[in-house]
Amino acid sequence: MGGIGKTTLAQIVYNDPTVENHFHLRAWVCASEDFDVKRLTKQVIESITYNHCELDFIESLQVRLRKILKGRRLLLVLDDLGSDHDEDCWLLFKQQAFSNGKPHEHPNLEAIGRKIVEKCKGLPLAIKTLAGYVNHGKIPSDLFEELRFLRVLDLSWTDLKRIPDSICELKHLRYLDLSATRISVLPESMCNLFNLQILRLIHCYKLRKLLENMRSLINLQYLFVSGDFGLKERSLIQETRTLVVLKQPRGIGRLTYLKTLPYFVVGQDDGFMLGELKTLQHLHGKLSISKLENVTDMLQAKEANLKEKKRLNELEFQWSDVIGNLQDGGDTDAVLESLQPHTGLKGLTIRSYPGISFPNWMMMGLVLQWCSLRRRKCPQCLKILTSAVAYN
């Protein structure tokens, strides 16, 4: 009979210190209705060693298990997965997932809920746990400890409000999608996901900040961030038409494998200066650079090394509408002159440029013969471009 707590009781005994001290090794394996000896043997080995087993033949698996168990006592729990009637499972799920027990008031969620029930394969405890996630938007802290070999995790478009610190247990994680969730803060423990290559944070409307030590994600290649962020400190952001940028993490230049960086906000402190872009040689697509008034001389601008970033096809340079005394007109001209991109650029946007002239590389058509320039709020430009440029 399912759902009466047999597995829960077995877990209490399994984790009891007295029991644990009596056995050299312990293994907990879920045995489904299709009793497969080879699969179960492999699961026992993996449960004991905490490592993935690459062996595929039953003979080699048995030899490996025999060597592991030689001279040792083993506690083996085979958790028999029973199955309940589909409608009984659905009834249990909707009672837990929907506060009023009326899924018809959420027609979009009902279809998703039935798919979740199907994946649970009749397990009452699994159904109740997952239904709780739907209802409360929470993930228990010990869940990731059981999924330590996970490579892909997609939690997008859920009601998730918080990521537990235990996500750092997913050492093998390559892909993480938290798009359109209700999270407001990313746990700093995510900085220990050293194998993470793709991080998606699209339409995270409540997100307040990115990771402070994101530079630790040394294998990160794709960072997708877009949509509106619900930041309380509006002074921390610069708006473009499709992107609201929050204060970026320090030292992003250490992410040398990074391939997408939709924005870069120039700061005055170490780790936020334009020179952080120097080492990001794999960037492609579009890059928007804002707060360029914080670049005080042409040497800082040259450190960005935009001319060598040949995979970028679109650039945006943006100054703030209200500029302090960091740049005068001549310095601004020199900064833009030093931001010369490669000649294969396909799109260039300049916003709120306070300089008195455009750079020589634009006037000479070194780039513009391949670009369309969209000029925004550049009232002080005294020279008129003679190249074939269409102004908006």
UniProtKB/TrEMBL annotation:
Family matches, as InterPro entries: LRR_dom_sf, LRR_R13L1-DRL21, LRR_R13L4/SHOC2-like, NB-ARC, P-loop_NTPase
Parts forming coiled coils: 289-318
Domain Disease resistance R13L4/SHOC-2-like LRR: 137-227
Name of a matching Pfam family: LRR_R13L1-DRL21
Domain annotation NB-ARC: ranges: 1-84
Entry keyword Coiled coil: yes
Domain R13L1/DRL21-like LRR repeat region positions: 274-382
Keywords, in A-Z order: Coiled coil, Leucine-rich repeat, Repeat
One Gene Ontology MF term: ADP binding
Origin superkingdom: Eukaryota
Gene Ontology BP annotations: defense response
Entries under PANTHER family matching the protein: DISEASE RESISTANCE PROTEIN RGA3 (PTHR36766:SF40), PLANT BROAD-SPECTRUM MILDEW RESISTANCE PROTEIN RPW8 (PTHR36766)
Protein name per the record: Disease resistance RPP13-like protein 1
The species this protein was found in: Nelumbo nucifera (Sacred lotus)
Lineage: Eukaryota, Viridiplantae, Streptophyta, Embryophyta, Tracheophyta
